[in-house]
Amino acid sequence: MNNTTHPPTPPNDLKQLGLTCSVPTAARLLGIGRATAYKAAADGLIPSIRLGRRVVVPTAALNRLLWAGSDPHQGADLHWG
């Protein structure tokens, strides 16, 4: 029996994203509402980059956020700011 732990595979939606995604897309992947996601991005709870009036979420950071709870040595309470 092999006890090696492998990280879970990202959802197909996440694999199809580019380097960034919109806040509503990140909200859908996180299972939260659009307004909640914008508030979390403004508060630094969801990593985000402001490009003029547009706010985008880096896909790599979103991937880390989604799978933070899969490693028992890494907490899911992540903050960016």
What is the string of SSEs from the N terminus onward?
Answer: HEHHEEH
Strand content: 5-15%
Shape: globular
The chain-level mean pLDDT equals: 78
Radius of gyration: 14 Å
Helix fraction? 25-40%
How many beta-strand runs? Answer: 3
Q: Termini, distance in Å?
A: 43 Å
Residue windows where pLDDT falls under 50 for at least 5 positions? 5-9, 72-81
Structural class: alpha+beta
Which helices and strands occur, and which strands form pairs?
Layout: H1 12-15, E1 20-22, H2 23-30, H3 34-42, E2 49-51, E3 54-58, H4 59-67
Gist of the model:
With 81 residues, this protein is of the alpha+beta class. The protein is 37% helix and 14% strand.
Feature tags:
3 strands, 81 residues, disordered C terminus, globular
Question: What do these coordinates show?
Answer:
The chain is of the alpha+beta class. The chain is 37% helix and 14% strand. It is built from 4 helices and 3 strands. It has helices at residues 12-15, 23-30, 34-42, 59-67; strands at 20-22, 49-51, 54-58. It has a 3-stranded antiparallel beta sheet. Strand 2 (49-51) and strand 3 (54-58) form a beta hairpin. The N and C termini lie far apart (43 Å). Residues 5-9 and 72-81 have low confidence and may be disordered.
